[in-house]
Amino acid sequence: MDKIFAVALNLHDHNTYDGVYHNQRERETRFKHNLPYHAEAYAHQSDILNVSDYRLNDEFTEQYFKKPDDAILAFTYTFGGIRKSKEELWSTILKGHDEIFNYDPKKLWDHYHKDNVYFIDHHQSHAAYAFLNSGYEESDILAIDGIGSKFRCVFFDKEQNLIDLSDKLPIGWLWNHMSGLTGFGTLGASKLMGKVGYGKFSRYYYTCFEVILDGPITEKKQEHFKQIDVDTHGVDDLAYTLQRFTLDKIKEHVYPLKTCDNLCIAGGVAYNGYMNEEFTKHYNNVFVPPAVGDEGQAIGAYQHADFVLNKNVHKSELYAGKEYEYIGEEKVNYKEVAQAIADGAVVGWFQGKSESGNRALGNRSILADPRNPDIKNIINHTIKMREDFRPFAPVVLEEHYKEYFDTKGGPSPYMSRICKVKTDKVPGITHVDNTARIQTINIKDNEKFYNIVNEFYKITGIPMLLNTSFNCQEPIVETPKHAIRTFKKTGLNLLIIEDWIIRK
User: Fold this and answer.
1) d(Cα 220, Cα 475) in Å, to the nearest integer?
2) pLDDT in tens, 288-340
3) What is the dihedral of CA 119, 122, 126, 131, to 10 degrees?
4) Residue 213 DSSP label
5) Is residue 55 scored above 80 in pLDDT?
6) Domains in the chain, ordered, with CATH?
């Protein structure tokens, strides 16, 4: 059996995976988005992590990649990142592999393999990660990004043939440009999505989008963005109309390609919860993995190589970060913590290994009472330090989610779908358009997280908590040191680290 070590070089989150441990550079450096390759940008973070020698050269390769000598390097990248650093890559890990840049896959399992280098396309990595973690015997797969290799969007049918939808469905590309146009930055699509619920349909914007996406994307098309009048027609209506346009184009170009009842979705656009929920109306089963964006690229590269070379369907662990050692025997009283939340406390929740991906899924979370109508403002203003319009998600006991949320889909363990809320009892997690991005939890997946939600249920009769990522204008906290630092500088009332309660 071949030993595999996977690496993904991306514009903003280099990551590695060895089958057990998943390393995301954003979490280690505490530097969010647009990470340059050179270490100088990280110098001010040196008190947290010694990164002074992290460069995309031999030193970078040695210290960050950490590939065993007898392992195969499974490798993928974001097109923009490779273009910026082609010379450096050629001189290090890709020396003698120039033909990689002409690689043109036709099927999901196509690959380049020479000596100890195994290479796949960016979107093959996305697709493999989604499919091999789904448990499906067969599936349609949609991999949709703003950027990435030569493709922006690809569809794999159940026979795993690659269908390029880049010119027909460059939705991620459109969202990136619109978020930049509206002042959120080209990586701020999630912020723009938070505005969807505030807007209404605009024929003006819809026509603009149709003109821009009429035919292949060219450099000349960039000029159309400058002509869109956001000041007159408003950001809220743009966001709503863009979401409507997205769903319409999905129905037009993806639905006719359906070859089975299962669908896997991956790529950065798969964070669009409205889109994912829409697919549940057309497919019996829809799977969206947790590290669905570029932060999961290394996992996908590993799984692709493990499947092709070793005939192994290697399902990745959800909690695959570092482990930390603790001294002491204090035990958390879950009832006490749940009662504190019910009384108004906002709690930092730090447990075990960190989650794969960018969602707080129970090990690096901020927890609060979803019944409190003021809790969104409290957390946005005193803890997250972000815009008022940003909503919060619920974590709900799996056995109760259909009582509170209107959805045709099954459980949503990775917070991937936006559903209508059926009740007015949980205003803290209900967005202005009466929706919520739900996470379901069961005792098998995360016993500690289930127990704290269940204790809150026993006290209040509400089987859910508000669950948001443990951070403050930075990537999700990774280490206990980061957790304590964020706790001290924000309005958090309690910090739970493993079995310890920390109070101010």
Assistant:
1) 35
2) 999 999 999 999 999 999 999 999 998 899 999 888 888 766 778 999 999 99
3) -40
4) T
5) no
6) 4-134+293-310 (no CATH), 166-253 (no CATH), 334-503 (3.90.870.20)
